[in-house]
Specification:
Subcellular location: Cell membrane
Strand content: under 5%
GO molecular function, one term: voltage-gated proton channel activity
Helix content: over 70%
Mean pLDDT: 78
Main location: membrane
Membrane topology: Multi-pass membrane protein
Low-confidence stretches: 24-29
Order of helices and strands: HHHHHH
Distance between the termini: 99 Å
Largest sheet: none
Shape: elongated
Pfam families: Ion_trans
């Protein structure tokens, strides 16, 4: 599997160049002695590439580790709250495995960055987490919408009940009005 993971690289990774030994010797002989001149100014693009490859930019890796720590705490909370029921939800179990595996790979990556061949897998796992976060947001929005719909249905039912009560009351008042009109006619009273 490690041979296939080499195809998944991150932006800024050095592309492996395979040169024959003779090519290396020829290339090293073509180097000129130092001239004492400064190299030409780097372009904006080259400056960005240098920034992304620098040690200072690796702060984002630690930020990723902090987020994964948060997800680990969330996972432990779910395990504590749901216990064995948690394992009945295959999607949650898979997500938990992704979080734990990402966390372990991030820790390994910190201490053995030069020997780490699972960068591609780490990227895929991070993409999975992004997809899960987006899914979580969508589920949250859907739950809120369902809650609003439920409240609106309750309100509608209440209004229908109130309209029915008012209609019954109006019918009774109409009948009373007709009875009184009939009584007035019977006694020949104009109104």
């Amino acid at each position: 599997m490690a041979q296939y993971l080499g195809y998944f690289t991150a932006v800024g990774d050095a592309q492996p160049v395979r040169l024959e030994e003779e090519e290396l010797h020829v290339t090293s002989e073509e180097l000129s002695p130092a001239t004492g001149q400064f190299p030409p100014a780097a372009t904006f693009r080259e400056s960005l590439q240098r920034l992304y490859g620098s040690e200072r930019f690796q702060v984002f890796h630690y930020l990723s580790l902090a987020l994964l720590t948060f997800f680990i705490v969330e996972l432990l909370g779910k395990l504590f709250a749901y216990r064995l029921e948690f394992f009945q939800h295959k999607f949650e179990v898979f997500d938990g495995l992704v979080v734990v595996l990402s966390f372990v790979l991030d820790i390994v990556f910190i201490f053995h960055e030069d020997q780490f061949v699972g960068t591609g897998l780490l990227i895929l796992l991070r993409l999975w987490r992004v997809a899960r976060i987006i899914n979580g947001i969508m589920v949250s929005v859907k739950n809120r919408a369902d809650h609003k719909i439920h409240k609106l249905k309750e309100s509608y039912d209440h209004l229908v009940q109130r309209v029915t009560q008012l209609q019954e009351r109006t019918d009774k008042l109409e009948q009373e009005n007709q009875r009184l009109e009939a009584l007035l006619k019977k006694h020949a009273i104009d109104f």
